Amino acid sequence: PQAQPLNEEEMARLALGLRTRLQNDAGNVEGWLMLGRTGMVLGNAGTATGAYANAYRLDPKNRDAALGYAEALTRSSDPEDNRRGGELLRQLVSRDHTDIRVLSLYAFSAFEQQRFGEAVAAWEMMLKLLPAGDARRAVIERSIRLAQEK
């Protein structure tokens, strides 16, 4: 039998349980990552950002921690968070410029911060990496045109 996805109340209980467990096991990177993901799903930016920050502080080389933290920062309403998230994404791209997820988040972050040339460069790199029939190509091509019009 296939498990049913958690509803919002169950996700909130999961987050509370994780928070409680992490009070006694603050060095658990995987626990912080799970709490960060749960916070993102619930739309709780504070929980997500704090959890990903802890995971990243504990293991700065952990790609999931770095990417989660960068994503939470770029979605923040605080311009300083956005700047820090963009900087972290630049570091991730410089480490691995073939990671589609990193490039995508970097491109959209750069676009949001009106760094259109950087956004176009990241999207063009994605086009080189994606296979010809990939459905994402059309969205990326539209995004490039939009950025070039700015």
From TrEMBL:
Record-linked InterPro entries: C-type_cytochrome_biogenesis (IPR051263), TPR-like_helical_dom_sf (IPR011990), TPR_CcmH_CycH (IPR056413), TPR_rpt (IPR019734)
TPR repeat segments: 29-62
Keyword Repeat tagged: yes
Recorded GO CC terms: plasma membrane
GO biological process: cytochrome complex assembly
Pfam families tied to this protein: TPR_CcmH_CycH
Residues in Cytochrome c-type biogenesis protein H TPR domain copies: 2-136
Assigned keywords, A-Z: Cytochrome c-type biogenesis, Repeat, TPR repeat
PANTHER family reported in the protein's UniProt record: CYTOCHROME C-TYPE BIOGENESIS PROTEIN CCMH (PTHR47870:SF1)
Protein name: C-type cytochrome biogenesis protein
Organism this protein belongs to: Salmonella typhimurium
